[in-house]
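Subject: sequence -> structure tokens, single chain

Hey, anyone have a minute? Need the predicted structure for the following. Not urgent.
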Amino acid sequence: MKNSKSYSQSVHRESAALPYRAALERRVECDANELRWVAAVILGGEQQVEKCLLDAIQLADSAGYVAPEWLNHWTQRVVVRTAVDRIRSEIQRIAGNYTYGPEVRAMVRGFDKTDSMVLRSMGAETIARSCNALERVALILYGYLGYSAQDCALLLECRRSVIESACSNALRNIIDNSHGGGG
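Reply:
Had a minute. Here:
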């Protein structure tokens, strides 16, 4: 009896996998520009984006079925996770020596839809020239995508205050560089 139940679950899983894989690929295709941009900013350029997206699709596909209403969010999270994993050692090296101050929270809390649109209009290379890996990831996750500072800290294995400070510094660096300041 147990074997027949296992078999029927396996058949159901396999029959659901094909439409799921197609839905996953459609989701990536529909959001390709956004997902590419997010990955490129996190990675610091376009060089590894294709491989990152392919790895993200494989990771998402290996998870099995995800309900259609979660697919958009799930796809974005898997791309973020894959990109972060590619530069994790660099992020941790920077985070271990990162300095921060209490004034950063007010600046980051002001991040709104207009800021997101302005940021999205920038090329990944422009942001990469202005920010280190930790600052780029904090800016995208905490500022642009709206992850909580605590979620970012857990993903990046650092303190919440480091995330807040890195995001604030990223914004400051981008503003300074856009006005001809150094960086």
